[in-house]
UniProtKB/TrEMBL annotation:
Similarity comment: Belongs to the ABC transporter superfamily.
Topology with respect to the bilayer: Peripheral membrane protein
Gene3D superfamilies attached to this UniProt entry: P-loop containing nucleotide triphosphate hydrolases (3.40.50.300)
UniProt keywords, alphabetically: Antibiotic resistance, ATP-binding, Nucleotide-binding, Transport
Species the sequence originates in: Amycolatopsis carbonis
Subcellular location: Cell membrane
ABC transporter domain segment(s): 2-242
GO annotation terms (biological process): response to antibiotic
Molecular functions (GO terms): ATP binding; ATP hydrolysis activity
Keyword Zinc-finger listed: no
InterPro entries documented for this protein: AAA+_ATPase (IPR003593), ABC_transporter-like_ATP-bd (IPR003439), ABC_transporter-like_CS (IPR017871), ABC_transporter_ATP-binding (IPR050763), DrrA1/2-like_C (IPR025302), P-loop_NTPase (IPR027417)
GO cellular component: plasma membrane
Name of the protein in question: ATP-binding cassette domain-containing protein
Length: 332
C-alpha cells in the first residue's frame, strides 16, 4: 500500500535580521505498509511525522526520495494517489456553518460521486461512527469527539483503500479517545481499510497499532509490533520474594534463566529482567521447586513504549517534545 524510499524534506526559515537557515525536517525515510495493516507512526512533537504524512498525501513536495502510495507513484501520478487515499488532517476539515449531511455530501461530490451515492455512503459511515441522528446539526455544534468522527467520515466517504489520520485523538477527553479507538479498529475490521496514523501518545500507539514505526529527529529509529519493540529493548521486569534465608540460592536459580540480567538482591526480594516474563516464570517456579525453595510473591511488569524510546534515543518521549515552529517557507 505504501512504499517510500529516502524521503526527505527541507524547509527554509527566516531568522533574525532576514538571515535564513534550513530545517532538515525529514532526513531520508524508508517505509513499507502492507494492505490491511493499521500502522502507527510514533514520535515526539517536531520529529517529522506530519511532514512525512503531508509528503505521502501529495500536499508537500519531497526534497528527495520516491514513494508509491495506493499503487500510484507520488511524483508521477499525484492525482492517482489523491483519488485512492483519505486524509484526516490534525485540525480536521469540517466547515463550522454547514450541516453534517451537507458536508458529507459535498465531500463525496468533490470526489466525483453522485449525490445519491454520497448520501448512501455517508449514511452507512455515520451509522458506524455513531453520528446517526446528527445529520441536520451544524458542525460547529458537535462535541469534540463527534467532530473528530465526522472528520473520519469525510476522509472515508469516497471509499479509499488507504486512510491517513494525523494525530486522531488530540484534544479529546479519555473516554472519547477510547471510543474513537474502537471506531478506528472497527473501520479496519469491517472495511479492510489500511490505516496509517501519526501519534505522539504512547497509549494510543500501544492500544491501536499492529505495527509501529518510530521516528525521531527526521529519521526512523525502530519499527515492529508494540510487543516486539518492548521485548527487543529491555525485557520484562521481574520481582520475586522468598525467605531471606534462601535468597542467594534462589538468585542462583534465577540466574540460570535464559537472558536473565540486571540482578538486584535485597532482603528477601530478587529483581531482574528477562526477555519474556510469561515464559520465564513457569520455568523459574519449576526450578525453585526442584530445590525445595518456596516463591512467596511474584510480580512481572512489561516495559512501556517510553522505556523503548529511552533505550533507542537516550531520552523519554516527553523529554524529547519540543514546541513546534511557525511555518515560513519550503524548499523543494
Ligand atoms: N512549513 C514549515 N516551515 C519551516 N519548518 C517547518 C515547517 N513544517 C515543519 N517544520 C519543522 O519541521 C520539523 C518537523 O515538523 P513536523 O510538523 O513534521 O513534526 P511532527 O512530528 O508532526 O510534530 P507534531 O506532533 O508537533 O505535529 C519541526 O522542526 C518543524 O518546526
Amino acid at each position: 500500500m505504501i512504499t517510500a524510499r529516502g524521503l526527505e524534506r527541507r524547509f527554509r526559515r527566516k531568522g533574525r535580521g532576514g538571515a535564513s537557515n534550513e530545517v532538515h525536517a525529514v532526513k531520508g525515510v524508508d517505509l513499507d505498509v502492507e494492505a490491511g495493516e493499521l500502522v502507527g507512526f510514533l514520535g515526539p512533537n517536531g520529529a517529522g511525522k506530519t511532514t512525512t504524512l503531508r509528503m505521502l498525501t501529495t500536499l508537500l513536495k519531497p526534497s528527495a526520495g520516491t514513494a508509491t502510495v495506493g499503487g500510484h507513484d507520488l511524483l508521477a501520478d499525484p492525482l492517482g494517489v489523491r483519488r485512492n487515499i483519505g486524509y484526516v488532517a490534525q485540525g480536521g476539515g469540517a466547515s463550522p456553518e454547514v450541516r453534517v449531511a451537507e458536508e458529507i455530501e459535498l465531500q463525496g461530490r468533490l470526489y466525483g460521486m453522485s449525490k445519491a451515492d454520497a448520501i448512501a455512503r455517508g449514511a452507512v459511515l455515520s451509522e458506524q461512527l455513531d453520528l446517526a441522528g446528527l445529520d441536520q446539526r451544524l458542525t460547529k455544534t458537535l462535541s469534540g469527539g463527534q467532530r473528530r468522527r465526522l472528520d473520519i467520515v469525510l476522509g472515508l466517504v469516497h471509499n479509499p483503500g488507504l486512510v491517513f489520520l494525523d494525530e486522531p485523538s488530540t484534544g479529546l477527553d479519555p473516554q472519547s479517545r477510547a471510543n474513537l479507538w474502537d471506531h478506528i479498529r472497527r473501520l479496519r475490521a469491517d472495511h479492510g481499510v489500511t490505516i496509517f496514523l501519526t501519534t505522539h501518545y504512547l497509549d494510543e500507539a500501544d492500544a491501536l497499532a499492529d505495527r509501529l514505526i518510530v521516528i525521531d529527529d527526521g529519521r526512523i529509529v525502530a519499527e515492529g509490533t508494540p510487543d516486539s519493540l518492548k521485548s527487543r529493548v529491555s525485557g520484562d521486569g521481574v520481582v520475586i520474594g522468598v525467605d531471606p534465608a534462601v535468597v542467594s540460592d534462589a538468585a542462583d536459580v534465577a540466574r540460570q534463566l535464559t537472558g536473565a540480567h540486571e540482578f538486584d538482591v535485597a532482603g528477601g526480594l530478587i529483581r531482574f529482567r528477562v526477555p519474556r516474563g510469561d515464559t520465564a516464570m513457569p520455568e523459574l517456579l519449576r526450578a525453585l521447586d526442584a530445590k525445595g525453595i518456596v516463591m512467596e510473591s511474584m510480580q512481572v511488569t512489561r516495559p512501556t513504549l517510553d522505556d523503548v524510546f529511552l533505550t533507542l534515543t537516550g531520552r523519554t518521549l516527553r523529554d524529547a517534545e519540543q514546541p513546534s515552529s511557525p511555518e515560513v517557507s519550503g524548499v523543494a
